[in-house]
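Field reference: sequence -> structure
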Amino acid sequence: MTDDFSVLAALGDPVRRRLYEHVAAAPDDVGREAAAEAAGISRSLAAFHLDKLVEAGLLAVSFRRLSGRTGPGAGRPAKLYRRAEGEHAVSVPPRSYDAAGRLLAEVLEDAGLDRELQTAARAAGTPVSGDMEAALRERGYEPYRDGDTLRLRNCPFHTLATEFPALICGMNLALLEGLASSEWTPAMDPCPGGCCVSLSKNKND
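Structure field:
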């Protein structure tokens, strides 16, 4: 089994890291040509590095005809890439923050302290005065535009949200409410495979 040090070492190459960041941030699966163009390299070099990222467990592969056609003459399915499921972290020396977070979440849920947690989360968020997308990206949400909506491809609290969905998703919404400026309104609106919250751009009166 590939350990986390080996997995993260795969991102040591700057070209490989650019490719991973592009694929991870994309709302849909990415083909080799699009990835090569985004990284400013040849298609063959992109294919080499993308497949290395697959071997490291950072990307997953699917095959689909991009033309949408089927049957004879439709061409071969393209090899597409997306961010792989799972999390990787390295701490030296080893730490167990995930265990502490799980224990704290269990205590809060058992004590029925959802509202208190949400109040604390909302107060912890200082409203963003500049680029909301950049602020969300810095916090690991991987935002992308869907019309006037910002959808979040990644949940920074994914593991805990899977075990304590009501508690953690409520906390996450409150945190984003604290971060959002008057320009954006967060709401529960799960993105398939992503975050439970999206942000809608407020209409000017």
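Note: Residues 15 and 39 are 7 Å apart (CA to CA).
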